[in-house]
Amino acid sequence: MKLIILIFALLISVNAKAEPVSYEAIHYALTQLPVAVQDRDNEFKQEQLSIVAHAIEKATQQVKWPNSDRTSLAAYLVAVGYHESRYRIQTHEGVAKAHSYGLWQVTPWAHKVTREELIGISQSQTDRSALIAATALSRSWQCGPNPADMFTAYYGGAACKSDWRTLKSRVRTFWWVRQTIVSKNG
């Protein structure tokens, strides 16, 4: 299985294009994910997802990403945000779990940023938070190029090649989001 993933990752890197990922494709992927129970009746939810989609689109254009595969970067950002916060509005506004903040649950001390740079629901605040998360992801290649390795490096607490409880669901989400974006990014 690992060999198949490695081959697929290499094919992606060889065929990667530096084309931008569209807001529409990212927004579509976000709206297809299950909504957190706390947000189901919130009238602001669709606008919030629009803010997030614009922020992810912008971050994919600003961060240096290996092989210029912007689609994968967008898919990583969507998958990390989904698994870390379920894009809950409350988390977006600054309610924290433990010592990490924002939709992507970035730890301020680990990335030399302040808590305030990671939270806030305005477009500019979300842009900043997405850029910080994308920058952290861009440094996550030290464990290898496939999604399991990238997630392990992003979360930093596990050794490379280790397996952890929610890793497989994160990898599945990444591949689903990536395929969804590809299908809508035409």
Structure description:
α2 packs across α9, α3 packs across α4 (70-85) and α8 (147-155) crosses α9. The chain has helices at 2-15, 23-32, 45-62, 70-85, 89-93, 108-111, 123-138, 147-155, 167-184. The protein has 186 residues and is mostly helical. It has a domain at 23-138. Helices cover 59% and strands 0% of the residues. It has nine helices and no strands. Mean pLDDT is 87; it is low at 3-17. The two termini are 30 Å apart.
Give the SSE map.
Elements: H1 2-15, H2 23-32, H3 45-62, H4 70-85, H5 89-93, H6 108-111, H7 123-138, H8 147-155, H9 167-184
What is this entry, summarized?
The chain has a domain of 116 residues.
Features:
single chain, 186 residues, mainly alpha, 9 helices, globular
Q: Largest sheet, described in full?
A: none
The beta-strand count equals 0
- Structural category is mainly alpha
| Helix segment tally | 9
- Mean pLDDT comes to 87
- % residues in beta strands: under 5%
Q: How much helical structure, as a percent, in the residues?
A: 55-70%
Radius of gyration, rounded? 15 Å
CA-to-CA gap between the ends? 30 Å
Q: List unreliable stretches of 5+ residues.
A: 3-17
What is the H-and-E element order?
HHHHHHHHH
| Coarse shape | globular
